[in-house]
Amino acid sequence: MSNNIYIITAFILYLLAMMSIGVYHYRRTHNMADYILGNRRLGAWVTSMSAEASDMSGWMLMGLPGYAYVAGLNASWIALGLALGTFANWKFIAARLRKYTELANNSLTLPDFFRNRYHDESNLLRIIPAIFILIFFIIYTSSGFVASGKLFETIFGLPYAYSLLLGAFVVVFYTFVGGFLAVCWTDFIQGVMMFFAILIVPTAGAVALGGVTPTVEGLYAMAPSFFDPFTKPDGSTLSFIEFISLIGWGLGYFGQPHIIVRFMALRSPGEAKTARRISLFWMVLSASGAIFTALIGIGYFAGDPEIKLGKGESEEVFLVMSRIFFHPFVAGLVLAAVLAAIMSTMSSQMIVCASALVEDLYSLMGRKVSARNLLIFSRLSVLGVAIVAALMALDRNSAILQLVEFAWAGFGAAFGPIVILCLYWRKLTPTGALAGLVTGAVTVFVWANVDFLKAKMYEIVPGFLLNLLVAVIVSRL
Length: 477
Known about the structure:
By secondary structure, the protein is mainly α. It is built from 18 helices and no strands. Helix 3 packs across helix 6.
């Protein structure tokens, strides 16, 4: 009981800090530009850390360690793909998107940019992307609610439904009240917490096992296949197509609205270079820490059968190790980093959904609405999206990685190629952009629901390539 008091205290302090940030930024949010884009005044550090925190979510501390726990170093290919994607996104997209969105009638959202970039009077380039944003982000946000529910269930023994509601309340509160600036500043703090948490947990595990060398030697003697990145969890050899599927995760970065909206919010395009270096450093160390957390967990749990994770519990390896190795209060802070990871992504996604509903869909109805009422509608949109996502997350058996990989593929395949072509190819036409976008999204939906295709290749790869091909062909025609 005393241990739980320490953990609860750490969590309460963290939750109050996040909510106070929302209250602080409430008075600094006066219009839609403030609420959904922070009026383009973010510096390199806040932009990079908030982008990475919203990018990784509970996947970094639960999904990736869980996959590495059953797949070993085979999981490193996903980490490599994400690192390459992070670099390319900051290198080739960030500065140009910041510049072009301001030139394109000060576009505040990605659909708004598509519409303004090509002077699309039909508004289809604004409406259809906005609809896809709502579909994929509600699925994506539900993965965050699943992760938060599992977190509170594991730590406090609360029923899953109550755990889900508790996590939802906090993230909705500061997003509802403070908007984009509150989201970015909380993400900055959460990104720092995630970074240190994912490094100290495997370090503590290695120390408990006698050091890095004995840990590696013991694990290799027990399961040498875990150190072979070309060996899959079932013991078979990784094929070339499967390798492309794992690396292909990196393609998703070019089309993630909750990440690239940070580029649009930079103070200036010149800030992108510094932000890229910070982001890549964070990504490489954090992904490495997540994989080593799983490997060290395997070695540690092998010596104590009483705490060995059962089937379907691999995504809780970070949570269990945190409680074993640290004083309850410190463990509470480390575990708060998991909540931070989950909340950072959910808040970013809900802001983007609100902007899609109000800025890209509601505004097209032609009604004159005051700035104050637009803010009210945006906040209500955040609440509505949260309710729908929470209802979808009521099934605690939903796998976090599976929910994330589908939504990630959806955005990457639908928006990624179009963003690249918008910034680098002048011959892209509105019809070509729309045809490619729809092709990418439909491919992901079909591919992910056909078992034969899903087993062969991650749906983002065919979706991305077909989008690119169709957009170019239709534009040429």
